[in-house]
């Protein structure tokens, strides 16, 4: 009788390991061997989930998106303004999990396999995110152009994240929060 | 009699070539050979300007900073608000030169030789830029906290630049300009 295997669980473990390697070493040094070492799964098992670098990157992006969506769903703020703030804070590297994601995202951003900008999944993730922000802004009802404001707020959060990664002392975490809150107080 | 050589001119040519290679291929594929091919100078001449990858990266960052400063100095807007707008627009990939710089910057951002965030020159460039924006905001005199607002505006511009690079159709150049102008109209 074959062993029962939780494939979703494994995918997530392998995707998280890939995410960690991308964050710490970059796409060019991403190998099946390194993911095997980081995840504890053999290269034989890994072959069922990712055959080449593109597969590994896709798995990492999928895992990042799942983690992000799970955190968004866990936001229990009933107040619209508080929900908007919580949503945007999920983009900031305010703890180790979000720091790993921000760093991996930064390294994935210039990855352009089809010459259409970034990888499909990264591009799609951004569009989904802007739409989510538009919905919250429409609920809030104070913005005259929620599409433009959503593009602004997501760009601000991503820009702040990168500035912190580039210069953690010049732009500390408290500064990220202060800048975001100052902007949100005007909306 | 030795030939007269314009070393500054050569440095700039080699730095621009390095910048182009970083933008199009990334740090991992940056080699003296590729810079030689892109600049037209022999690897023998290149050896006087850059011995290893760190030297090439430093030269590229130096050239990017010089180009940026030259463009800032060329801004002839006497009106403070117009100067602020022009300064921030220099960060947006609105033409090929700025697109190359934004893409190279994006690839340089996670480059962390000393473990202190990004490369010194990239980090220092950001600090100088925020200070320049603070000075213009102080001149404008409408911000209650020009340091926080400067951090916000530079992060917004960099975030917008990246969103365009990731998804040029979803976030076209006209959108970058519209978002920036909408934000500036509130200051």
Outline the structure in words.
Two copies of one chain form a homodimer. The first copy, chain A, is mainly alpha-helical and 187 residues long. Chain A has nine helices and no strands. The longest helix of chain A has 22 residues, at 53-74. The model of chain A has no long low-confidence stretch (mean pLDDT 90). Chains A and B meet through helix 6, helix 7, helix 8 and helix 9 of A and helix 6, helix 7, helix 8 and helix 9 of B.
Quaternary organisation: homodimer
How much helix, percentage-wise, in residues of chain A?
Answer: 55-70%
- Which pair of protein chains has the largest interface, and what are the residue counts? A-B, 41 and 42 residues
Averaged pLDDT of chain A: 90
Integer-rounded radius of gyration of chain A: 18 Å
Q: Would you report the number of β strands of chain A?
A: 0
Percent in strands of chain A: under 5%
Category from helices, strands and their pairing of chain A: mainly alpha
What general form of chain A does the structure show? elongated
Low-confidence stretches of chain A: none
What is the N-to-C order of secondary-structure elements of chain A (H for helix, E for strand)?
A: HHHHHHHHH
Characterize the biggest β-sheet of chain A: none
